[in-house]
Structure formats: structure tokens, C-alpha cells
Write a structure and sequence with these properties.
Structural class: alpha+beta
Distance between the termini: 33 Å
Number of domains: 1
Shape: globular
Number of strands: 10
CATH topology: Spore Coat Polysaccharide Biosynthesis Protein SpsA, Chain A
Order of helices and strands: HEEHEEEEEEEHHEH
Oligomer: single chain
CATH architecture: Alpha-Beta Complex
């Protein structure tokens, strides 16, 4: 920590899972925005500023995500979030750029800022006041699908979740799962 004195370590007394771990940590922060970034995500240079600028100029947007590409083939979308998520009529989640296990190559076909049903928790940019007003992630999820639940609750407030084209990141998760 001597190289990063501005970093504060929050040690939990037990494993609260993905959801509880974020909820415990974020309730103590006083920032305008939270960036929830999985440890298996590699961000690209300059990825954060376009998201911040977009949120500053779109006050009705509560959460947004960059496009997520695969580590093993950086031209392909990644399974966890791709270019923003939706729910089908049966309640099954899918993404722009990924339906079930079929991934699309990114040819710029989703290069529009687009409202989505859910923004991925792998790389989620969210207004802190909205996150906290919604009670954060539902701890009963522990891990997986928690961002869909949160974004669903956010929609009921009249605010939006967005997928944003001018920023993208690389996720390693499925790369390692396939090895």
C-alpha cells in the first residue's frame, strides 16, 4: 500500500459474495458515481472519460456499460454483457452481440448509445445515489443476475440503463473457463 496511499482496504469479516461485498464497501463511499469492475476485466486506454461525459449529459441515465469484448478473440463480443442486455418474454436474459452461447463479431453494429434492460455487472458505471436508494444489489443473488435485478428496479423509477459505444473493455472470464 505504500505505492498507493490513496487506496483504502475494506476487510470484511466473512465472504458476502459479489453482491454483499459491493454493498458493504459502497455504502461508505461518498462519490457521485461508482464503477463496478470485475477483476477479470481489462480496460482500454481512455475508457472511463466517455462514460463519465455521457452520464454528465444524460441525467435520466442511472447506469451504463461499455461494450465488452472477449479476451481470447478481441474482435468478438464477450458472454458477460456484450453490448448491453435484454430479457425475452420468458424472462431469459440475452445481449446485443450474444444470444445464448452464440457470440457476434463486433463490426460496429452496436455503436449507438442504446437503452438496454440491464447493464453488465462486470463493468458497471452507476450513479451512487441511485445504487444506494435502490438498496444496492439484492444479497439473495450472492453472485450472477444481480445486475439484472438492480437495473429492473431502476427502470421502475423511470431512469434508464444504457450501453455506450465510445468505451470498451476486454473480459478474460470465458477465456479462462474454456481452458
Amino acid at each position: 500500500m505504500k505505492n498507493f496511499p490513496e487506496v483504502e482496504i475494506i476487510r470484511n469479516d466473512k465472504n458476502y459474495g459479489f453482491t454483499g461485498g459491493y454493498n458493504v464497501a459502497l455504502k461508505n463511499l461518498k462519490d457521485e458515481f461508482f464503477v463496478l469492475l470485475n477483476s477479470d476485466v481489462e480496460v482500454t486506454e481512455g475508457w472511463l472519460q466517455p462514460l463519465l461525459s455521457f452520464m454528465d449529459t444524460h441525467p435520466n441515465t442511472a447506469a451504463c456499460q461499455p461494450k465488452i469484448r472477449s479476451y481470447s478473440d478481441r474482435n468478438m463480443f464477450e458472454h458477460a454483457g456484450a453490448a448491453g442486455g435484454y430479457i425475452d418474454f420468458l424472462g431469459y436474459p440475452f445481449c446485443r452481440g450474444r444470444i445464448y452461447n452464440t457470440l457476434e463479431e463486433d463490426h460496429g453494429q452496436y455503436d449507438d448509445a442504446q437503452p438496454v434492460f440491464w447493464a453488465t455487472g462486470a463493468c458497471l458505471f452507476i450513479r451512487s445515489n441511485v445504487y444506494l436508494q435502490q438498496g444496492g444489489f439484492d444479497d439473495s443473488f450472492f453472485a450472477h443476475m444481480e445486475e439484472i435485478d438492480l437495473c429492473w428496479r431502476i427502470q421502475h423509477t423511470g431512469m434508464k440503463s444504457m450501453s455506450f459505444r465510445k468505451a470498451w473493455s476486454i473480459m478474460w472470464g470465458w477465456y479462462f473457463a474454456e481452458k
